[in-house]
Known about the structure:
By secondary structure, the protein is an alpha+beta fold. The protein contains 3 helices and 4 strands.
Amino acid sequence: MLNTRLTGLEQQVVQVRGFTLIEMLVALAIFAMISAIAIPLYTQYSQRAYRAEVMSDLMSCAQALERYSAASFTFVGANSGGDNTALNAAICDPLSVRQGRYLVTAVTTQASYELTAVPIGSMAGTGTLTLDDAGQRTWDENNNSIIDPNEDDWVKD
């Protein structure tokens, strides 16, 4: 004869339960609130990092122009396309240009230069940065093509 007695574990009814619709909606709402805060902060952080990158690129290009001038006794010819064009890649090849975030151009004369970084792509509208041979740095932060008194440096006030 078979033993038909059930053990205590087998007598318990196991109830499997998933998430309810309300629980899922609450989790989705929490995720949406966190995203609403985090995404703009991440975007601002990225823009500051990319701006720092182009500042470094401008300084590197300025050093490259100084080396070019020391060898050729002029800044003219560093950008073979003429004024307001990109520098020759052999002289300066900025990372921010290769990544498609800025367009770096130079205006050169016999004894001076001015480098300009114009934001493009994801950085468009964040303000143009310039650096000249005297070390003068400007950042047109409000992007109005006028250098206001508080825009005469790369440091944000």
